[in-house]
Specification:
This protein is mostly beta strands and about 230 residues long. The protein is built from 1 helix and 21 strands. The protein has one domain.
């Protein structure tokens, strides 16, 4: 049922089904603060967000999201990403995103500024991103094509895998002389005080920042904007 009234209750057996832009926007009202209240989300159709003009990111939610291969497209976001912080217990997968971030914050990516895993063995997989990201002004920024930061946040989490993801597009620093870090798929995969790891496997990035395509681990490197160009190192 489209127009902001989703079918399902968010359980594993009866996930919330997102059918249109109003449904997607309504995700911000879903009560999903933590692992005990995690909600299962599925896309049931392609989602076009052009009607919102500048889309306001979905705030922090404990979601397991399966995009079913559908596309979320035509969005323009000022900061962060479609989601500020996705907090999965099992997976984020099978999503295609296509849009732009016009003034990215210190942690920004087309899909999410941050993904914080809440359980061991969370899988982030088969996500494609196409578009452009412009980093905000400031001394240091960390941003990426898909996900700004991935935080391994669960106690004793042995491994959270990021695999078969890709980004193709452009990355720009807003201010000449600004220093930042850019990663094609994700920028920073960090472990909490609990320990753990987040290997990045069989991912592809191809963006105008470094005119390269790299498979396996995504790169993370410093660069400085110098006038109209970007120099590495």
């Amino acid at each position: 049922m489209p127009n902001g009234v989703m079918t399902g209750d968010g359980s594993r057996s009866n996930p919330l089904i997102v059918m249109d832009a109003l449904d997607f926007n309504a995700l911000r009202n879903v009560d999903a603060p933590d692992a005990a209240n995690v909600k299962f989300i599925e896309l049931g159709a392609n989602i076009n967000l052009s009607g919102f003009g500048t889309f306001v990111p979905i705030p922090t939610k404990a979601f397991n999201i399966d995009g079913k291969g559908f596309i979320i497209s035509d969005f323009s976001i000022v900061t962060t990403g479609l989601f500020e912080n996705i907090r999965p217990t099992e997976y984020v997968r099978n999503i295609i995103v296509e849009g732009e971030i016009t003034n990215g914050s210190t942690t920004s990516g087309l899909l999410a500024g941050t993904i914080t895993t809440l359980q061991p063995n969370v899988v982030i997989e088969d996500i494609e991103g196409y578009g452009s990201i412009t980093a905000s002004s400031g001394s240091t920024v960390r941003y990426a094509g898909l996900i700004g930061n991935i935080n391994v946040g669960s106690s004793g989490a042995p491994t959270n895998i990021i695999q078969r993801c890709s980004f193709r597009g452009t990355a720009t620093l807003a201010t000449a002389g600004q220093i930042g870090f850019f990663g094609g798929v994700c920028n920073l995969a960090a472990t909490s005080s609990f320990g753990g790891s987040a290997p990045i496997l069989h991912c592809i990035q191809c963006q105008s920042l470094c005119q390269m395509q790299r498979e396996s681990d995504c790169c993370r490197f410093p660069y400085r904007r110098t006038g109209n160009g970007i120099s590495l190192g």
